Structures are given as C-alpha cells and as structure tokens.
Amino acid sequence: MSTTSDDQSSFDAEVAVIGLGAVGSSAAWRLAARGVDVIGFEQFEPGNAWGGSTGRTRLFRVACLEHPGLTPIARRARDLWRELEASAGQALFFETGGLMIGPSDSHIIEGTLAAAEAHDLPVERLDADEIASRFPAHARTNPGDVGVWDPEAGILRPEAAIIAAADAARAAGARILTGTRVVAIEPDANGVTVLTEVAKYRVRRVAVTSGPWITRFVPELPLTPHRVIMTWFRPREGHDADLDVLPVFIRSVPGHDTWIWGHGVVPASGPGSKEGFGGFDAKVGPEFDGPFVADDPDAIDRVVHPGETDGIRDLVAATFPDLEPEPSGVTTCIMTHTPDQLFVVGVTDHPRVVVGGGCSGHSFKHASALGELVAQSVVGEEHFTDAAFLDPRRFSG
Ligand SMILES: Cc1cc2nc3c(=O)[nH]c(=O)nc-3n(C[C@H](O)[C@H](O)[C@H](O)COP(=O)(O)OP(=O)(O)OC[C@H]3O[C@@H](n4cnc5c(N)ncnc54)[C@H](O)[C@@H]3O)c2cc1C
User: Fold this and answer.
1) SS3 of 202, please?
2) Which atom of ligand 1 lies at the shortest distance from residue 359's CA?
3) Where is 159: in which H helix or E strand?
4) Ranges for the FAD dependent oxidoreductase domain (predicted)?
5) Domain 8-53+159-221+340-395, what fold?
6) Is 362 in the pocket of ligand 1 (CB under 6 A)?
7) Are 377 and 371 in contact (CB under 8 A)?
C-alpha cells in the first residue's frame, strides 16, 4: 500500500475518488467504464443519510433556470440515469413534467425561459387561469403570476441512484472501500498520497467529491455548507385525489416574497400507480434562507427542534389549502453553496487534484453527468459540453 518511490509498480491505483455520494459514485463509475484503475473511498456507505443526498427524492429539470449551460448536462445526466436504471434493474427517474410559477420578471420564470430558448425546449407558457384549470392544487397564485410547464422535468431517487452508480463502478472494475475515511491528501509533482485513518495509498491523481467536506481537502474553495430542513406533508382528509395532479414544482407563495418547491405522490411503479415511497405524499421545501451555516459538517445538529418548521407551515398553508400544514415528516440535510450558486467541477490549482461538488441545492439532477465531467477532467479528455462556467479556478482568478 504505502510506497517510497514512484516507479509504475509503486502506485496503488491510477485514480482515487474521495467521497462516493452523488458525484463521486458516478465519477468512479465513469472512470472505471473508461478502463481507468480506480479506488473509491467512502467514509460511510453509498446512499448514506449524512451528506447532501438524503431525503428519498430530488427534482429533475431540463430547462435549468440557474444557467442555460446546465441544460446539456441535465440531458447527459438523464441518459446516464437511464443507463443506471437498466444496470440496477429498478426505476430511478420518473418523468412527471414540472411547473414553475412566479412573476414574469422573476428569476424562476426568466431563467427557465432563457434555458428553454437557448436549447429550443418544448416548454409551455401558462396564464393564471390555465394554471388553475390544469393544476387545481396550484390555483392560488399572486396577481401577475405566470407559469412555465417543462414536460421533461421529473423526480429522481437519490439514495437508490447513488447505490446503483457505486455498483456500476464496482462492476466496471473499481475498488470501493466503504467505512473508510480519508484524512488527508498530499499532492506532489509525481502523484498524490492519500491517507486514511489506517493506511496510506499512492495514486497518480485524485478526484475530491466529498460534498460538504470538500474544503477539508481543497481549503481554498469558497464552499459553505448549510444545515437545511426537509419536510413532508399529507393531504387533509378527503383531499387525497388533489395530489394526483401535483408534479414537480418551483413556485412563488401567495402573499409572501419567497418560493417553495416540491412534488406530489411519487409513483413507485410508474405513472398511474397510487403507491408512494416511504409513506409520504408531498414534499415541499423553502428557499434556502441561510441562517444555519455549518462550518463543521460533522457537528451539525441532526435534530429538528420545535418551532423550526413554523415558517414552512405558514407557506404551505398559504399555497395549498388541501394539504395539512403541519409536516408529517422532517429531516435535516446539508446544502453546500458556492458564491455564484453554481457547482465546482474540474482541475483545481493543483493539476493532480480534480474536484466535483459545490451543490448549491440543485446538483443532484446533474450528478451522473458531473461524474462524467470529473472523469474527463481526470483523464484529460475534452468535456462533453462546455463546462468552463463550473471551473473551480474561477474563484481564484
Ligand atoms: C435539502 C436539499 C434538497 C435538494 N434538492 C435538490 C433537487 O431537488 N434537485 C437537485 O438537482 N438537487 C437538489 N439538491 C442538491 C443535491 O441533492 C446535492 O447537491 C447533491 O446530492 C450533493 O452531492 P455530492 O456528491 O456533492 O455530495 P454528497 O452526496 O453529500 O456526497 C459526499 C460523500 O462524500 C463522503 N465523504 C465526505 N468526506 C469523506 C472523507 N473524508 N472520506 C471518505 N468519504 C467522505 C460523504 O460521506 C458522502 O457520501 C438538494 C440538496 C439538499 C440538501
């Protein structure tokens, strides 16, 4: 394992992937699929509840309001999720369509339309009456609100998808070490030494994909982990049917200057099924509002305390009269923000260290393709799309 010189035989692997969450499990898979000798380290298990990928569902959108350059990444990601579904033999992605609602000059609407226009996406514009007739659950809107329907949006199953990617990496030849925490990386001119709590490995390059823990290894990156609360809601008695027409949404809140996102019942076996995952019916989350900076992701408070859900309860009551506003379920998760709310993917200031992360609350949908971009950065292949806007060096000038 440990080495003193750097002849060919002294390397334990070509590449080490540190952190096998959403991006890392896919990076290990895409590297192994290229025939690269990969060793992946995960401090817990793939699909764990302690990073940024817990909560059973994630929204998928192709008309990415955050940046039009994300659309090709979402499309490539969807192909890869479908490939993983085939290898795992289970559904990971459900295309439900998605509804964005807000003022016509809001970021939600303008950003969605900008991505749709840039990529000629088949979105539909809806006025308030059309929103109310097609989506009765969304009948309450603010005066002047409009809607955009993205037919390609849907719901992903994060834990199952991560496990599927780690399994695909193994099947392609990657060595996956679980329950193995990396404590340091030491890059030099010839390679990188990776130190775990019990051993030392020598590799040629590393991909740091440790989510909220990335700055332990690449401290110069301006990433800020935040503790966030996720909530689930059930319909009021007698209103179950209303959630049948509640596809993915991001929307303004009547009488409030904020927005919420979520989706209704997740069909466990495809459209038409009434069976939901995990016994919840709807999931709604508030926009990130920043009070819970978690400098040490290991130390975040995992307990949701009385009063912490009062805000979301009021927003749900204002928006969805047919939902019981008291959450039926709550949990904590970690969201890792960058200053421009985009991700960091690519080679860092050290040429042997590639990074993939900085979720900013919207990277899961892209994670399989971000893994592909990480793999391409590691092997020096041209990116499948222009990813310069995600270059981690944009923050160091
Ligand atoms: C509440 C919430 C809602 C979200 N909703 C959406 C959504 O609807 N749609 C969307 O696209 N995105 C969404 N996101 C964003 C998305 O879920 C995350 O961006 C993404 O899952 C993060 O993936 P990651 O690979 O960067 O990190 P993670 O999945 O957290 O992976 C990091 C992994 O590294 C491991 N690790 C860390 N340190 C070490 C170490 N020293 N040694 C070994 N292993 C280590 C961790 O255990 C973990 O498994 C949301 C995020 C949150 C928090």
Assistant:
1) strand
2) 19
3) helix 158-171
4) 15-376
5) FAD/NAD(P)-binding domain (3.50.50)
6) yes
7) no
Q: What atom in ligand 1 is closest to the CA of residue 365?
A: 11
The answer to whether the CB of 87 falls within 8 A of the CB of 168 is yes
Whether residue 228 has its Cβ less than 6 Å from ligand 1: yes
Mutate to test the pocket of ligand 1, among 363, 370, 373, 390 (most ligand atoms within 8 A of CB): 363
- Who contacts 167 (Cβ-Cβ below 8 Å, separation ≥6)? 87, 88
The domain segmentation of the chain, as residue ranges, is 8-53+159-221+340-395, 98-151+224-337
Side chain identity at 129, as an amino acid letter?
D
The answer to whether the 8-53+159-221+340-395 and 98-151+224-337 domains have the same CATH topology is no
Note the pLDDT tens digit of each residue in 14-67: 999 999 999 999 999 999 999 999 999 999 999 999 999 998 889 999 999 999
In short, whether 201's Cβ falls inside 6 Å of ligand 1 is no
pLDDT of 250 above 70? yes
User: In terms of pLDDT, which residue wins out, 291 or 154?
Assistant: 154
CATH architecture of 98-151+224-337: 2-Layer Sandwich (3.30)
Measured CA to CA, the distance from residue 356 to residue 335 in angstroms comes to 14
* 247 pocket-lining for ligand 1 (C-beta < 6 Å): no
Instruction: Give the model confidence (pLDDT) of 163-220 as tens digits.
Output: 999 999 999 999 999 999 999 999 999 999 999 999 999 999 999 999 999 999 999 9
- pLDDT for 103 equals 97
